[in-house]
């Protein structure tokens, strides 16, 4: 049994407009996940510790940290981050940017099945797709293609999670559902929309997984701290191997 979380932290800026990485760390500590996929993380080194959001949160939790820098922002690395209890076997950031749009990436982090670390048993893909319709279509095809999810060298179970930015069911959702199982929000929570949490109108945060895994529980964290820490809520999934 293992737990994964996907969470768009919005540069750690909460609904009170305060930038507080410590608050994000508190939300994640309570969730007690094995693997955490974060989007919109800004990590500026060489100054105040909290400014390096990825490593600050990882340090607060005592987790390993893998950063997928997609672009530079305010002198720091901006993009996706994977935090984990277990040290990763491999970290790779795929460029899935389209034309003139904002740089986007899919961060892949591999984990071993046991302490021998012989080969990967789990491949985590943390993604944050673009806001433009044609951009997302390009990124969807890139994701399911031979370069990323279709890579013949992948030996373990795949989990794809993150902020897909699809306001309606688009090509990314359809293609991923053809290749992987979808963690259905309605089945597990009775809800079809999750963003923004205050007045939810869309479902942006998703988790897809290989049939080799069984999803046993899916929840949205609506703790008091999570309700103010970001405009997204953490999506929490518990899995076990079939």
Plain-language structure description:
With 242 residues, this protein is α+β, with helices and mostly antiparallel strands. It has one domain (2-241): Deoxyribonuclease I, Chain A (4-Layer Sandwich), CATH 3.60.10. Helix content is 21%, strand content 36%. It contains 6 helices and 12 strands. A 6-stranded mixed β-sheet has the order 3-4-2-1-12-11. The radius of gyration is 17 Å and the shape is globular.
Short description:
This protein is an alpha+beta fold. The protein is built from six helices and twelve strands. Helix 3 links the parallel strand 7 and strand 8.
Strand order of the largest sheet: 3-4-2-1-12-11
Largest sheet: 6 strands, mixed
What is the fold named in CATH at topology level? Deoxyribonuclease I, Chain A
C-alpha-based Rg, rounded? 17 Å
Roughly what is the average pLDDT, rounded to an integer?
Answer: 93
Number of helices: 6
Known CATH architecture:
4-Layer Sandwich
Helix content: 10-25%
What gross morphology would you assign?
Answer: globular
Assembly context of the chains: single chain
End-to-end Cα distance, whole Å, is 10 Å
Number of domains: 1
SS-based structural class?
alpha+beta
Low-confidence stretches: none
CATH class: Alpha Beta
Listing every helix as H and every strand as E from the N terminus to the C terminus, the arrangement reads: EHEHEEEEEHEHEHEEHE
Please give the number of β-strands.
Answer: 12
CATH superfamily: Endonuclease/exonuclease/phosphatase
Strand content: 35-45%
Task: Based on the model shown, name its key terms.
single chain; 242 residues; alpha+beta; Deoxyribonuclease I, Chain A; six-stranded mixed sheet; 12 strands; 21% helix
């Amino acid at each position: 049994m293992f737990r994964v979380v996907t969470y768009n932290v919005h540069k750690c800026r909460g609904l009170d407009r305060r930038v507080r990485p410590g608050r994000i760390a508190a939300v994640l500590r309570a969730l007690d996940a094995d693997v955490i996929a974060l989007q919109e993380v800004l990590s500026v080194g060489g100054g105040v510790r909290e400014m390096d959001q990825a490593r600050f949160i990882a340090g607060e939790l005592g987790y390993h940290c893998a950063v997928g820098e997609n672009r530079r922002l305010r002198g720091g690395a901006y993009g996706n981050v994977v935090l984990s209890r277990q040290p990763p076997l491999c970290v790779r950031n795929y460029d899935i940017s389209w034309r003139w749009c904002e740089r986007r990436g899919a961060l892949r982090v591999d984990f071993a099945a046991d302490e021998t670390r012989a080969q990967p048993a789990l491949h985590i893909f943390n993604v944050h797709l673009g806001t433009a319709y044609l951009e997302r279509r390009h990124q969807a095809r890139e994701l399911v293609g031979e370069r990323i999810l279709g890579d013949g060298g992948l030996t373990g179970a795949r989990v794809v999670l993150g902020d897909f930015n699809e306001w309606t069911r688009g090509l990314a959702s359809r293609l991923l559902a053809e290749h992987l199982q979808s963690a259905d929000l309605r089945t597990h929570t009775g809800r079809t929309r999750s963003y923004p949490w205050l007045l939810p109108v869309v479902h942006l945060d998703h988790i897809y997984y290989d049939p080799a895994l069984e999803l046993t529980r899916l929840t949205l964290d609506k703790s008091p701290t999570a309700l103010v820490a970001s405009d997204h809520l953490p999506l929490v999934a518990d899995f076990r191997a079939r």
